[in-house]
Design brief:
Radius of gyration: 18 Å
Distance between the termini: 32 Å
Number of helices: 4
Strand content: under 5%
Helix content: over 70%
Amino acid sequence: MDSLGVLLSCVVAVLVFWLPGIVVLAAARMSRLVTVAAAPAVTLAVAPLGGQMAAMLGFRWNIFWLLMPAFVIGSLVFLLSRRVTRPQPELPQLTQAGRLFIVLGIVAGAAFGMTAYLAVAGGFEIVPQDFDAGFH
């Protein structure tokens, strides 16, 4: 049961880190590879907005406040992308080896990030409280 809990924690972490960014980038009609590669960075730009709004309105942070700014910003980006037409640049076609190299880079980056997290946090069983020390 313990390994199932770790697996579920990993799945939730992946969803939390990728889902808000995927919503925004998919609304901007980015390619799948760009969306997967850039989603964590976009999530880190979008997610704090929900946390700040929740704190300012006196609500506790939850998954709604994580996803709400992503859907609002994604909706705005989608509406703007439909209004603005941009020429599509001629991109070279990726070979299968090129796609594999990109995917391996994403996996290596995720593994590096997870290793850094585990080294700092001390494991999945310990909930770090250093990010919100100002509230305690």
